[in-house]
Amino acid sequence: MITTKIDSRKRRSLLRGLAALSMAPAIAGKSSRASEPYPSRALRIVVPYPPGAINDVLARAIGERLTASMGKAVIVENKPGGNTLIGTQFVAKSDPDGYTLLQVPAAHAINAALQRRLPYDPIKDFSFITLAARAPFLLVVSKASPINSVQDLVAAAKKAPDAISFASSGTGGNAHLMGELLNNVADIQMLHVPYKGTAAAINDIIGGQVQCTFSTYSGAAAAIQADRLKVLAVTSAKRAPVFPDIPTIAESGYPSYDVVGWWGFAVAAGTATAIVDRLHNEIIQACNTPALKERLAADAVEIVGSTPEEFVAYLNKDIALWRDLGQRARITWE
């Protein structure tokens, strides 16, 4: 038998060569994908909430228009849980190739400000595309309630703090923080009662177990139209076109109160600028179609269509608002 001795330097060189050969197919695969025209396969929009709410309606409506304009299917995937953390983390860890989009909700700023530990960086792990739309929330009470205005609500809360509570669709959501903000600016102490969804919260308000909540128009529309809820105020600085006769909380004695729900889009950080620009242009075009604008206006949703830079500035402003509230009211959670 003949044996051949290979010195250590040659052995290392040989092993490196074999390793390079084994990696060649993967490298070739990545190279070929990088050279493909965009898009060359289906895209998906991850919505970090269950289906059915206005955010889901917005994502699906935009997805339909992107499918038509980009020539590839755009699929909406609902990944709820963890106050949006599950779906958001999924996109943060996805390939930065422009095929997985996140519908970024206002809760993204709330989590960034108040969540003690996040499994992602809320700014650095994303390339933001556009702030697509926003909508005021409505402060509502039961139709049978003796409370008929924000002033009535504040007076009742000051007279009997333990008797006034506000519902939300869950800790850390828009309604929770809007209620805490009203507590802060009005110097009251309404009790927060979290529910698993807006529908359950509204049912208990109608039943008298809880006094009020903050809801999008779409979330409360059926009960309002059935004359089971009344609207005290809207949360935005300006009155909502859907309710021109309903005052704002700012008009009701608290001029600094100005918060809304909003929805934007982002992809994983590191996505090519050309792809982000393409998605921005396509989403803006989709948002500005008359049919979509009319559909959303009926739910008090306003199209924004910001630049990526404007979106980041808006996001940082919201983070600062909620962080300041958290420090003043000592609000935080795991």
TrEMBL record:
Signal peptide per UniProt: 1-28
Keywords, sorted A to Z: Signal
In terms of InterPro entries, this protein maps to:
BUG, Bug_dom1, TAT_signal
Q: Which SUPFAM superfamilies match?
A: Periplasmic binding protein-like II
Q: What Pfam families does the annotation carry?
A: TctC (PF03401)
Q: Which CDD domains match?
A: PBP2_Bug27
Q: Which family does it belong to?
A: Belongs to the UPF0065 (bug) family.
Q: What is this protein called?
A: LacI family transcriptional regulator
**Lineage in the entry?**
Bacteria, Pseudomonadati, Pseudomonadota, Betaproteobacteria, Burkholderiales
